[in-house]
Amino acid sequence: MDNFVIHGGRTVNGEVKISGSKNAALPILAATMLTRDKCEIKNIPELMDIKSAFELLNYLGKKCFFGFNTFTVHEASALKHHAPYDLVRKMRASMLVAGPLLARYKKVRFSLPGGCIIGVRPIDIHLEAFKKLGAEVSYEKGDVIMTAARLKPARVKFRFPSVGATENLMMCASLIKGITTLENCAREPEISDLARALRKMGAGVEGEGSSVIKISGVKMLKGLKYEVMPDRIETGTFMLAAAAAGGALKLTNTNIALVEPLARALTRAGVRVFGEKNTITVISSGARPKPVDIITEPHPGFPTDLQAPWMAFMARAKGVCEVNEEIFENRFMHAAELMRMGADITVLERKAVIRGVERLLGAPVMASDIRAGAALIVAAAAAKGMTVIRRVYHIDRGYQKIEDKLRLAGVKITRVKA
Ligand code: UD1
Description:
alpha/beta; four-stranded mixed beta sheet; elongated; binds uridine-diphosphate-N-acetylglucosamine
């Protein structure tokens, strides 16, 4: 297991290239199961979660190649329709193969998913929606089994705009003849990226980015050549590292439109943010920011995946502020670790009250999930002294070569074997 050792207190400067989006790549890789043709997807980040997707697709019978950020998928024979526990437990997004496999084979069996420990994370929204399309759902030995004599187009209203359920249903409906209408859909930019990919493969998809998506399914989709969108969460994490530690950081291969709620909050906190074509520049004095409350919400609200790094930034606010977590019921594990670094935070169920402190001090801390790990990096970059972050494998699930990128921006960071 690796640790990060960070000597904080230096400014974050220079230029960092943002990788492709993990959360856009995972559903698009699952969508390659909707065709027998070759798919070539570019700008795929080199991450543990992508490796998990690679292993799962290979297990199911696809032939995958991955190198230089390009993922190529072929199909040589019929696919298996069972996603087993060992492959699914590592990553919740594995269940995105359920929609495509159900659509193609009218049966699928998958283990209940794992992933980050940030709440219960049930899959009822997915299953209720699949039932509307004609699937019968049963359970056996920790697996979910879905079968359908025939899938039919339907009108499906999600009880909550779940990102994964919206994606799973969009993919499944792409191979159901007729028009399926999805209501109360998630509106995240990654949904739009998947919609663009499905359209290129021959499905009729309209309405993405709004809460109603209509899918006009076809018998089989065609191969795909596609480049995934930039990672808005990686973008936001680097913006927050520069904001917290101070400096002038330019991010390339990204887009300000993807991080508007964060850019607005940073501006209110006193940080300067500029967006130009495919670049974002953050300029921060490194002084204590103004306190700014945030509430995490489905897009276009403040993203839950930036809540933890935002809290690390606000730990030094000049005053008191609140963070309200509306998406996940147990996503404040980073608060206790930030307190080990001197932060003053009180967690009250889904609300955290942060009383800003003059400075954070380096300490031994532990990452509990991907974004909690990102928060500790933001805090460590701004803190005085040395921070050792354990359980870096969580961070490796979601950030490509983060230590190389941070080093390039002037952060004193090393990866050491524990
Ligand atoms: C995706 C993102 C994740 C992000 C999250 C919310 C990927 C690979 N992951 O996760 O980084 O934090 O969106 O923006 O894209 N829920 C249910 N029942 C369900 C499904 C979800 O109750 O069937 C609940 C979840 O427990 C959670 C909330 O709905 O509280 C949001 O979940 P969802 O939008 O589905 O998140 P994911 O797709 O898992």
